[in-house]
Amino acid sequence: MLTLITSLLFFAVGTVVLTSGIFTLQSNHKTPANRAFFALTAAIAIWSSGMAMSTTANDAATCEIFRRISAVGWSTVYAILLHFILIITGRAPSLRKWWFYLCLYLPAFFSVFAFAVPNPMNPFPYNLHQTAFGWTNTSQHNIWDWMFYAYYIGYALIGLLLLYRWGAKSSAPVTKKNSRIVRVSIIAALFLGTITDVVLSSVFSELPQMAPAIMLIPIISIYHVLQKDSFGITKGIDKKTSYMILFVSVLAYIILSALQVLLPEKSFAIASVVLDKSEIRGIFVQIQMFISIYLVLKGNRPGYIASLIINSISLVTAIGFLIRNKSTSSLPGIISYTGVLVIISLIRAYKEKNDDYIKRINTQTVREKFYSSVFKQAPVGIAIISGTEFTRNEEFDDLNINPAYERILCRTREELQNTDWTTITHPDDLATDLAYFDQFKKGKIDYYPREKRYIKPDGSVVWVDMLISRFASSNEKPGDHVCIITDITNRKNIEATLKYNSEHMLLTGLYNR
């Protein structure tokens, strides 16, 4: 039982970690930090999945095969982590040189060669023995082990130093906080991983090596920062997803998959209902379907990716069982998993479209509020006019005349909407105004400025500087236009006074001569 629990834990960790990497890469695949984070999660997923398979292996030989696969992950993860830290701390110029990559990944290459590839230099890299937790490995502390210790501890310390200097040199509180979060998570993972995989495994050989699960700590921390501002490199990820919901859902799904394999052939009696193995397996598959749909609905895109991964694995496993055993007992499962993949894809497509509509509506609402605020608070008069009338379509009913326009003409919006602008234009300006407007309607000009006079309700005159421009959405109605006016009555009065004084002084001077 403990063996199964340990294996399921590793599978769940691998799935959740890989989901985080895929989602981050999908958000912005061009960003180097996102690509490095995906590579980091892929390495941990290989590490965790290999450990899960080796834990439940039937014999030591099979266990060693999966241990070697797992070694590809844990041999490269520390080099990739340092690579990621170099990117987020602004050390990217160093990464442009090919020899730097060679030096960076050389220890990882030697580790893969020693522990993943069968070779005469390290013919027996694992000391395997079976315990209550499944197959475990006891470190031999040979030259290859010590080289790996130096590699992972050294790279972790270099990464911590870079993160510390990055936070210390920055004056931005967000950068200091991000540096501290990632630093603490790496220290915690380094300490706990060393205790469980090196110290305790040497003293108590029965205990499992839990480093793959512990690596979830820095992954969660880094993903948390990527959600917010992506370390200041690019925009953060839009939607947050609870790691707890994701992890528990994936773990429940994997447990149900394991129970389907472990079910005995006998029937089960629940109250007066008797269920055989195939019926119970069908119930488990339906529960898995509900979990998959829940992940898509609740977990946003990461939930969809996780659901896609676990159902794809289940489908491949069921097909493999069908081919290997030449039995149709797995056929209902194949149909169910295929159906689930189709359903979650349709739900995701609908959800994305719905989210897009909501986003558009919210954006449109914000824009309308913005334009409404600008329209109503503008210091110049603005009116949307159809032909010679101030009325427009119902969609512009509240925005066809702004308060400044009413104030300048001393007329309310309701009064203006029942008025033709030709009736309130000064008679001396009307002919010229209509001539310009006729050219405007015929499309000969797109706009025209004018200084003109309007007549107020009390008979007085207001001078305005007017600009007429075509209304953007009125292609089928060439007479629709925007009228913008500025009150220039004071300026005109001053000009008239200056002109009068100038002429009066000239005449007075001639008379005095």
How would you characterize the overall build of this protein?
The chain has 3 domains: 1-238, Rhodopsin 7-helix transmembrane proteins (Rhopdopsin 7-helix transmembrane proteins), CATH 1.20.1070.10; 243-377, no CATH class; 378-500, Beta-Lactamase, CATH 3.30.450.20. Helices cover 66% and strands 9% of the residues. The protein is built from 16 helices and 8 strands. It has helices at 2-27, 32-55, 60-88, 98-115, 143-169, 173-203, 211-214, 216-228, 243-262, 277-298, 300-325, 331-377, 403-409, 413-417, 427-441, 489-512, and strands at 128-131, 134-137, 268-270, 273-275, 381-386, 447-455, 461-470, 480-487. A hairpin with a 2-residue loop joins strand 1 and strand 2 (134-137). Helix 1 (2-27) crosses helix 11. The termini are far apart.
Give a quick precis of the structure.
The chain is α+β, with helices and mostly antiparallel strands.
List keywords for this structure.
513 residues, alpha+beta, Rhopdopsin 7-helix transmembrane proteins, Beta-Lactamase, 3 domains, two-stranded antiparallel sheet, elongated
Secondary structure blueprint with pairings:
Blueprint: H1 2-27, H2 32-55, H3 60-88, H4 98-115, E1 128-131, E2 134-137, H5 143-169, H6 173-203, H7 211-214, H8 216-228, H9 243-262, E3 268-270, E4 273-275, H10 277-298, H11 300-325, H12 331-377, E5 381-386, H13 403-409, H14 413-417, H15 427-441, E6 447-455, E7 461-470, E8 480-487, H16 489-512
Antiparallel strand pairs: 1-2, 3-4, 5-8, 6-7, 7-8
Helix pairs in contact: 1-2, 1-8, 1-9, 1-11, 2-3, 3-4, 3-5, 4-5, 5-6, 6-8, 9-10, 9-11, 10-11, 10-12, 11-12
